[in-house]
Amino acid sequence: MLVVHTLWRNGRLALWAEDPSLPTEAPDGTHPFAVRLPGGEPDTVTLQLPTIAGRPADSPELIRAEDPPKGKVTLQSWQVPVSLHEITVIRDFSPRRAGDTPIELPDHADLG
What we know:
The protein is mostly beta strands. The protein has one helix at 105-108; strands at 3-9, 12-18, 34-36, 41-52, 55-56, 73-85, 87-88, 110-111. β4 and β5 form a beta hairpin.
C-alpha cells in the first residue's frame, strides 16, 4: 500500500508517495522509496524530511515487513519525485451556493 503525500509547488498540487516495496538505501540523496504518481507534469522537489540512520524515516502509516530503524531523528534534504497538477477547486461560487449546498468535488475540481 502506498502512502500518498501532497504539497503546493508554484501554485500547483504536487503528489508523491512512499512505496514500501522499494529498497531503503539512499546513496545519492534521492529518497529511495519515493515514487511519482501518474499524471501531471513530472518534477523533482527537495524536501527536509525526518531521517533515521541515514535514510528517510517511514511515515507512520507505511506498512513494511521489517521493523523501521531506531536511532536519533534528524532533518535532512531529500530529492523527491513528484507529479504537478493544475487544480481548480471551485468553478462556480455564487452566493446561492455559499454555505447552503454541499459542493461535490468531482463537479467542481480538475486534477490534470
